[in-house]
TrEMBL record:
Keywords assigned by UniProt, alphabetized: NAD, Oxidoreductase
Family: Belongs to the aldehyde dehydrogenase family.
Active site positions, chain numbering: 262
A molecular-function term among this protein's GO annotations: aldehyde dehydrogenase (NAD+) activity
Entries under CDD domains matching the protein: ALDH_F7_AASADH
Aldehyde dehydrogenase domain: residues covered: 24-490
InterPro entries according to UniProt: Ald_DH/histidinol_DH (IPR016161), Ald_DH_C (IPR016163), Ald_DH_CS_GLU (IPR029510), Ald_DH_N (IPR016162), Aldehyde_DH_dom (IPR015590), ALDH7A1-like (IPR044638)
Protein's UniProt keywords contain Ribonucleoprotein: no
Official protein name in the record: aldehyde dehydrogenase (NAD(+))
Amino acid sequence: MIKDILQQFNITAKHSGVSTGAHWLSGTGSVLSSVSPVDGQHIADVQSPGRDEFDAVVAAAGQAFHEWRQWPAPKRGEVVRQIGEALRTHKTALGKLVSYEMGKSLQEGYGEVQEMIDICDFAVGLSRQLYGLSMHSERPGHRMYEQWHPLGITGIISAFNFPVAVWSWNSMLAWVCGNVCIWKPSEKTPVTALVCQHIVQSVFAANQVPEGVCCLVAGGREVGEWLANDTRIPLISATGSTRMGKAVSSAVGARLGRALLELGGNNAIIISESADLDMALIGCVFGAVGTAGQRCTSTRRLIIHESVYDAFTQKLVNAYKQLRIGNPLDENNHVGPLIDKDAVSLYQASLQQVTAQGGHFLVEGGVLDGAGFESGCYVKPAIAAVQNHYNIVQHETFAPLLYVMKYKNLQEAIDMQNGVPQGLSSAIMTLNLREAEHFLSAAGSDCGIANVNIGTSGAEIGGAFGGEKETGGGRESGSDAWKNYMRRQTNTINYSNRLPLAQGISFDL
């Protein structure tokens, strides 16, 4: 099945990972070997760029920007609309490949491609709504307004857990804004990026889009460092760990560039004594085990009112007993594998730290082996009773490890929710209006996303996505996130026959 998909997009066993949008270049860098965590089978080798190929891609992108920025925004939007149509055509094939290369469930693979389609639709509408404000001048016979212009090259560094969707959040908006893009996908999921590149290149070719608008540089850390340090690239949008984000921010900041960062999360759900516990259970379980706990919005902590703690944790334990772990392309399974054996090792180390720091398990974890688990990447979702201040709880574990803890009153729960370095997603389960409104107030959650009666995991593309503190402060996707990809210009026009100065200053000659 996967071989048929690769053949459909002309992906060979060893394929270049370097493209200027119209031509594939022969890279001279290292080779990325894509191996599926589903069954441990080799998918393809992807050739990374050397420094010369990287510079050629950046030069092509820079040249293309001069032409692309002059295309009317609605015309750019029409090209993005056609990308959305192409993704609809290839949704099944690309969704299966996402599931197989990354390890998420098939439904989540399809859902990720649907996110790409949705952001295309959003960007098409946005192409006619790149509004600026008009202001009244204090000087007679003057008009003031602001407008937004494209920045230039947008460098996109994406993570393995959403190998295609987050790239599309950035690229579709950047393109309708008049920017060109250079994408460095995760070195763990390069093949899905190749397919996306082939799809977009065919659409661009049909519309005579200049070469260099959509570029690909599949490579490892070195390629990311080249992007971050390159003064020709005014904006770097990076998704990944907090450690990686700090390195990117430091490099981009040193050259006074812009960094849009979407980093780690340590997301909590508060379970109020006024919660609908059955409804809360659904959000908590999916948030904790969906994508095998490898979402930045995955639910890591449950802060449960002491009066319902025993009842709710028993519901959790019973629900975990029903989870089916196995091949994610089998839609009967709930939980697939972790991305690779390094992730498994980190998971095992976290389990050990829970016990060492004083926690105990309500549901034991462990690595699965035997038939169907030959890749060595399948683990058991675990639940641990802990205290919020434990060192292991303060860090993000990218695996299905859920922490539970008690609280006495709402302010204590909010303080616990906020009492971690990360600030991405948060939620409260309550039928009490006062609790809900307090949670959403300035004195409530300090996260970029705060939900009531839904979980922490997942987001609609219409809202701006991102978080605070060590999550990086970036915003992508909906609302006015498009402004990240543009520069603001304030314009003043004097249509009078005099030249009065601002603030009433007189300068007579």
